[in-house]
Amino acid sequence: MRYAPLTQAIQGETVDAWDIHFKATALKEKDSSVIVLSIGDPDFDTPTPVIDAAVAGLKGGDTHYVEIEGRDNLRAEIANQHQQKCGQPVTKDNVILLAGAQNALFSSALCILQPGDEAIVLQPMYVTYEACIQLTGAKLVPVAMDKHNNFRLDKDALAAAITPKTRAIFFATPNNPSGVMLNKDELSYIADLAISHDLWVVSDEVYSRTVFEGEHVSIAGFDKMAERTITLNSLSKSHAMTGWRAGWAIGPETLIKHLSNLSLCMLYGLPGFVQQAAYVALTDSQALMDSEAMRESYRRRRDTLVACFEKHENLACIPPEASMFLLVDVSQTGLNAQQFAEALFEQERIGVLPATAFGQCASDYIRISYVVDDEQLAQACERIDNFMLQFV
Amino acid sequence: MRYAPLTQAIQGETVDAWDIHFKATALKEKDSSVIVLSIGDPDFDTPTPVIDAAVAGLKGGDTHYVEIEGRDNLRAEIANQHQQKCGQPVTKDNVILLAGAQNALFSSALCILQPGDEAIVLQPMYVTYEACIQLTGAKLVPVAMDKHNNFRLDKDALAAAITPKTRAIFFATPNNPSGVMLNKDELSYIADLAISHDLWVVSDEVYSRTVFEGEHVSIAGFDKMAERTITLNSLSKSHAMTGWRAGWAIGPETLIKHLSNLSLCMLYGLPGFVQQAAYVALTDSQALMDSEAMRESYRRRRDTLVACFEKHENLACIPPEASMFLLVDVSQTGLNAQQFAEALFEQERIGVLPATAFGQCASDYIRISYVVDDEQLAQACERIDNFMLQFV
Questions:
Q1: Which residue range or ranges hold the Aminotransferase class I/classII large domain (chains A, B) (predicted)?
Q2: Cβ–Cβ of B100/A267 closer than 8 Å?
Q3: Residues of chain B positioned with their CB less than 8 A from the CB of A100
Q4: Nearest-CA distance from B391 to chain A in Å?
């Protein structure tokens, strides 16, 4: 049977990179000594008040159709917190709940991109950007962050990538996999380009609550950016709620109406009991304290890993400002990232990802997810020390 | 800012029809005597064992990422039940879980249709088909069911609608809003056309467990149809789980792989606790008994309404074989469907839908959803009797 060309556009080329992750998770079922540092799924439980809210919703019969855009109180709370943080004046009418930031990215791309367009994405980038952009018929134009400057913005490269066909700039801040958080100067540069070339900006901020140093800044709050910015966020990372599929987009009211029309035929809203849980996640003091405690754990783990990698002369680690990931340049070992990751798994039973999947500019790097407890992480560091002996 | 043309394709023309529904639900908050017969949301609670399974999943920490296609045990159970019912040999690899049959319809359309294609939909049709098909760039070609024959298949009209551009035939059996269930002869006719013209068939079977008379037949089980049929189903209607967003598509393995690639960038799987609940819904004897009890309630309500409408000479009701809806021809009253629905709401505080939204062929009809308890339904019948006095 014939399939639509779209099915070609969503076939990732980067599946190989996950082989080690799949091998590691499969082996871990038989061998508990395997340490899986290859996925961005928090090891924490969802905060208890959030679970309790979902349970109360389920037991209270909140299992029927709900408003397509999400409930007013939840949308208003998201709008309120966004405005408090970045200053962009928004109401619930600027917010739509969707099934995770992934669904929000997918939906936003469909509403703003069309065949013939070019969409710039700052690289390294999360692996699903490629499919989300290509399925609209638009062309993805990767702009590599500057790997000689710890993967910070390469302003000249960004400016040079803009053509008359450019329609949007997509980025994640903090970035997965680098953990780099764009600063005011960098965002201001992007904003100026977006305004002068009349571009959309899609800012994926799912790690914005997992920040170790400095202040997270949202480009939506910059002058004249409200009308052209789509801010994506979710509870997946901040509240260890990856499986709940609860995220949102914030943007101009017209965009939200289009996204609502799309959700009507794509999704038909999020479960009411999930929305009750989401509201508690964003407002309950215990839930917020739990979220902060997770962040402090990630900070401690990051410090442990950075200290480990800095000991080894032929590894160069980029200390992340945020997120639950870090990149390590392994090229000085004489192995490429895939070889290094395979050897580390074979010899030391540690699963990490070759960062090639996140863009060519990251091909010398492995991505480490610090989503295991302190004890496992200490073990991982010992094994890495041992592994590195062969390269001395 | 410029939006993609897709945003035009998903702007429904049929929103007016829902005005009365929105008015009725708004007034009901202030006036409990309002009777809302305008939505397809069961008034029942989700069966307790299903709730309990979700609660156990939540409390057990089943809140992390899960397999994109859904869990093996759930997919295998769906495959098993489908095979038992219709004879199509399928395994879990022919099944993908998606966020409701709506999401499965949307995703299937994206994977099989492209600009230039024509997709036939049997009309009356549920309102979101238009957007789902048009957003792919394909043209929706409605084929009216025969209203002079209780909205059964018009074979000649279907055959005549096929052109070299036709790529697929979409239908719902049982149908929303007519409650008509396609029989073996009708499905066989459709299958022959699909095979001889090499067409996809998308069979939306969300009301297949809500059948009052006769046997529900799935076209997927017909000879040579497995390779070209996509069967959509969900728990929304059968188990009063509309808000859970739990549905699936069954089809060729290649299609499932494409749908899985799509889900990776669109949705990223269903919550694990929802999947645990779904498994219980499909296998637990109490949950299945509850589902059957719902069906018996719908049957009783249907009988009540049919008896009510048959009393009135200038109303012609099509007794549905299945579903939770029925159509009533109101044209003999001298009012059109919109006027009739408005007057019924203004005078008797009953919300029904003008069926115009489901296709031009249904424009003489109102759709009644029997999703209220026996007492309210008896009241509704009394009020309808009273309302009809003015037309005598």
A1: 33-384
A2: yes
A3: 267-268
A4: 36
Residue ranges of domains in chain B, CATH in brackets: 6-45+287-387 (3.90.1150.10), 48-283 (3.40.640.10)
> Would you tell me how many other CB atoms lie within 10 Å of the CB of residue B224?
11
Burial readout A135-154 (b: 16 or more C-beta within 10 A, e: otherwise) = bbbbbbbbbbbebeebbbbb
Q: Which of B355, B374, B368 is nearest to B309 (CA)?
A: B368
Q: Which of A127, A268, A371 to mutate to test the interface with B (most CBs of B within 10 A)?
A: A268
CA distance A68 to chain B (A): 11
Shortest CB distance from B64 goes to which of A11, A41, A64? A41
Contacting residues for B38 by C-beta, under 8 A, at least 6 apart: B18, B20, B21, B24, B351, B352, B353, B367, B369
- Rounded to the nearest angstrom, the minimum Cα separation between A48 and chain B is 9
Q: What is the pLDDT along chain B (392 residues), one digit of tens a residue?
A: 999 999 999 986 555 667 888 888 889 889 999 999 998 899 999 999 999 999 999 999 999 999 999 999 999 999 999 999 999 999 999 999 999 999 999 999 999 999 999 999 999 999 999 999 999 999 999 999 999 999 999 999 999 999 999 999 999 999 999 999 999 999 999 999 999 999 999 999 999 999 999 999 999 999 999 999 999 999 999 999 999 999 999 999 999 999 999 999 999 999 999 999 999 999 999 999 999 999 999 999 999 999 999 999 999 999 999 999 999 999 999 999 999 999 999 999 999 999 998 999 999 999 999 999 999 999 999 999 999 999 98
